[in-house]
Amino acid sequence: VNTNPLKRILMVEDEPDIQAVARIALEMVGGFEVKTCISGPDALKVAPEFLPDLILLDMMMPGMDGITTLKHLRELPGLDKTPVMFMTAKVQKHEVEGYLELGAIAVIAKPFNPMSLAGDIKDLWSLHVPQ
Amino acid sequence: MSHNNETQNEPMVDFEALLQLEFKKLQDEFLSKVPERLSEIENDWNTAQEGVNLEALCQSVHRLRGTALTLGFKEMGTPAAALEDALKNHLPLEQLKPLYLELRLEMLEPKPPHALM
After folding, report:
1. Which residues of B touch A110 (CB under 8 A)?
2. What predicted TM-score, i.e. pTM, was given to this entire model?
3. Which residue of chain B has the CA closest to A111?
4. Can you tell me whether residue A95 is helix, strand or coil?
5. Contact state of A114 with B116 under an 8 Å Cβ cutoff
6. A108, A56 in Cβ contact below 8 A?
7. A89 part of contact set with chain B, CB < 8 Å
8. Strand residue runs (E) in A32-104
9. Is A76 exposed, middle or buried (0-12, 13-18, 19+ CB in 10 A)?
10. What proportions of chain B, in percent to the nearest 5, are helix, strand and coil?
11. Cα(B70)–Cα(A18) distance, rounded to whole angstroms?
12. Which pLDDT tens digit goes with each residue over A67-112?
């Protein structure tokens, strides 16, 4: 029995078009409740109220990048242990290892496939989050 | 021997059509903004030529790469990706010109997107 279901996803992505595709993929295909943020500072405002089950974090954003955003998210109440998946085009082995060391539970390669994104996230969730 | 269960494909037809419609809207919207993005990249390329600022070019090409590839515009995203990677590897601009011209040509007359399925 799944005691830790994945329902609410906060997505931090600076490109509106990519945000829109991911939203459709996660809401319509995955059935998740999704909130999107356009930047790291935006995520720091929204996350404490939304209290997501999972945060999808774009790595390369102007201003505050994904790594810095994660660091600040961890300092906020209720977000110190929220699972995070990084989204990035840099998925060479050593790069992925680096991201996992920073505290991400998984890395999603960009460009993602909109039809399989939700399923991939569900699989990674069951694999890495204690059920 | 087991085969895929195909008994549930009845409601999926409409659902997939609906999804495709949503994706189509985003692709059309993207296409309508390609000329705007092209003039941005052209400006950034010219600025980079003057040796003033490579960062702006890197960013505009990076943004185009991500969006184009996510929305199925492979022929536009591929030279954008190669150009961004080359910029990050500090290759001389003169050497990048063919990639830039390939990208520019594709942006002037974009090929239809590949299906997002």
Report:
1. 66, 69-70
2. 0.87
3. B70
4. helix
5. yes
6. yes
7. yes
8. 33-37, 54-58, 84-88
9. middle
10. 75, 0, 25
11. 7
12. 999 999 999 999 999 999 999 988 889 999 999 999 899 999 999 9
